[in-house]
Amino acid sequence: MQSHIVTVTGYGSGGDGIARLEDGRVVFIRGAARGDVLEINLIEESPRSAKAEITRVIEASPNRIESDCHAYPACGGCDFRHITYEEELAAKLSRINDALERIGGLPIRVSEILTTGQTEGYRNKAVLHSDGVSLGFYESNSHKVIPVSDCLLLRDDINKTLNNLTAGGEIVLRGEKTLRGEKTLRGEKTLRGENTLRGENTLRGEITLRSGRNGIDGPLEEELDGLVFRISGFFQVNTGAALLLYQKAREFAALKKNETLIDIYCGVGPLTLFVGRDAGYALGVELDRSSVETARENAKRNNMTHVEFINADAAKWDSKKLHPDCIIVDPPRKGLSPGVIGKMLETAPARIVYVSCDPATLARDLRKLEGYTAQSICAVDMFPRTANVECCCLLTQ
């Protein structure tokens, strides 16, 4: 197998280092740091690009550090445990700005990335996989299970239960297990596991473990800036960073008591309620019926009678009687559909706040929102030590 000597110049969207081969092709190298001089072997090739593995670090980048995790880089949960946190943040800003320029053709750039500074123990949820023998996380780019008894990204309460689950020897169940932790109003810690067996028979159930004084049962809850949310379905896995994101969205929305807010893809309503408390009226739009029911409960428990939620498709809800001053969108990774963009342009709010988990689809959609200009954009490091990054963008007419 022929080896190549390359110098790493940056990072791809998935966190792999990027270099150029002698023939000009781009090569993606997992575990590489910007500034590394490496000897590599190619493991996948195409006419325009290749993937490679490191065989020798000839000259280490000043941005390179020793990984502090025994499962890295085999485990696919992290992408950046081999570089400094400062370099990771720079890589994420570069990824966003590259997308804005290359995909969106936009002049705006992001220079600010908000972070809690907590790079370990921040996740309140873990999705684990079992092959019938081991319980852990998938290897990068495969379905091979890497055994894990604790994870640096997980909160202590989740790690404790993960350790208990793996300490008993052979894991007989195949499938997926989700563990979620939270803090209740009473200051107790809760851990809930949702166990799904894949195959001929499917079993769904929940295991709730409480460390509170009385072991009181109840719904999973999170508190953000005085507001309490019942968790059902999607909720941000990093509560501290979610607060930073929601505060920025509230700042961008800049609502007054005589104004109206519409939150599309509202889920269980955290953004609707967090930002909508400044409005005279707020409406959340969500397709999943159970999430709408939970969102209504969240409005009731926070005494927000001026906030409503409807069960409707993001592109088909009735907007004829509404004239919003601000629309918030927090779409899935694939971004906005043409129908949703059409609905937003039809309602013509003065301001749009776009929350995104993918810089590429954000840049694409900003270009399609004709008549609106991106005035400000901020990044939030929701997932430290991974390549994922959140953005919050303000658009005005």
What does this structure look like?
By secondary structure, this protein is α/β, with parallel strands linked by helices. The protein has three domains: 3-64, OB fold (Dihydrolipoamide Acetyltransferase, E2P), CATH 2.40.50; 89-118 and 238-396, Rossmann fold (3-Layer(aba) Sandwich), CATH 3.40.50.150; 125-222, no CATH class. Helices cover 21% and strands 32% of the residues. The protein contains seven helices and 22 strands. The chain has helices at 85-102, 156-166, 239-253, 270-276, 289-301, 338-347, 359-368, and strands at 3-7, 10-11, 17-20, 26-29, 37-45, 49-59, 113-114, 125-131, 135-138, 145-147, 174-183, 189-197, 204-210, 221-224, 227-230, 260-264, 281-286, 307-311, 326-329, 351-356, 373-380, 390-396. It has an eight-stranded mixed beta sheet, with helices on both faces. Strands 1-5-6-4-3-2 form a six-stranded mixed beta sheet, with no helix packed on it. Strand 12 and strand 13 form a beta hairpin. Helix 1 packs parallel to helix 7 and helix 3 (239-253) packs across helix 4. The N and C termini lie far apart (57 Å). Residues 183-218 have low confidence and may be disordered.
Topology, element by element:
Blueprint: E1 3-7, E2 10-11, E3 17-20, E4 26-29, E5 37-45, E6 49-59, H1 85-102, E7 113-114, E8 125-131, E9 135-138, E10 145-147, H2 156-166, E11 174-183, E12 189-197, E13 204-210, E14 221-224, E15 227-230, H3 239-253, E16 260-264, H4 270-276, E17 281-286, H5 289-301, E18 307-311, E19 326-329, H6 338-347, E20 351-356, H7 359-368, E21 373-380, E22 390-396
Parallel strand pairs: 4-6, 7-21, 16-17, 16-19, 17-18, 19-20
Antiparallel strand pairs: 1-5, 2-3, 3-4, 5-6, 8-9, 8-11, 9-10, 11-12, 12-13, 14-15, 20-22, 21-22
